[in-house]
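Example record used in the benchmark description.
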Amino acid sequence: MDAAIVAASARGTLVYFNPAAADLLGLKEEQTGLTLSACLNPESALVQAVATALKDNVSITEHELLLHTAHGEVYVSLTASPIESPEAAALLEVRQIDQQRRIVNEERLQAQQQANRELIRNLAHEIKNPLGGIRGAAQLLSTELAEAHLKEYTQVIIEESQRLQGLLDRLLTPHRLPKLSELSIHEVLERVRSLMLAETPNGLSVKRDYDISLPSLIGDREQLIQAILNIVRNAVQAMAGVGEVVLRTRITRQATLNRKRFPLAIMVQIIDNGPGIPEALKETLFYPLVSGRPGGTGIGLHLAHTYISQHHGAIEFDSRPGYTCFTLMLPLNGWQANLASEKA
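Model output (structure tokens):
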């Protein structure tokens, strides 16, 4: 069984566990006969659920429970039920739901991003026309003014209008379809690495952890460079240019991305030892115009998510103080035909 099964006696001692429970909870054969609180964290929801089931003779169910295990933090659903057996009085069933959570979160984020893209696209088109008028009027006014200090004010208007124009252009750019070609993901990563080391020559270490056996993929080279560059640049800015970034590649088999199964996918991980992502930003990190940095536009990660989505891939992250890892999943085959049919 995939589920972790644990049986406890009426006194709360461990009488049985299956291999899945041994793997997930770190249980050992020699712990049989000890109390569950001695085998697991006494404050664990698992121990509390079994105790309640035994005490009140009722079934207890918990959904989306964050559990600390030997493999790290995982989300589980658990059910503790009283049973009638010569040796056991309660049965605990624990199922990992990380995959289901990831799929649900991915779908929610995709739907939200689509709504955001449509809203911003409409707003950008509405803003571009009056913005061009403001810039043109400021340029004409500048030619009519004799005083240099007054011309400085019109120059500010012109420069700020151009900055806003550039921001709008970046918001509208993702709506083009990828220009596909065969490429190596390592060439993309090496380009990003050289750019970041040129921007931050002192205090930054960018290490490689590549699987050199990875095959080529079909994608848009410039979009992938921009997506990964935005993530790395965000990490470097969060570390104030001093720290370590690791670029890692691996192969993943039977990957489910956007509810589609791909036999092979390339996994790219971007890991840094910076301060981590604030909790308040985690739910909206990929939304446009959301930034935790003073002066940030909040466009970089939004564009990264858009570009990876256009490659039928997925992007997620794990972050805590001293460790942040962005994981990009790019399917190796099967989606080019889908894209061609969408164009048609």
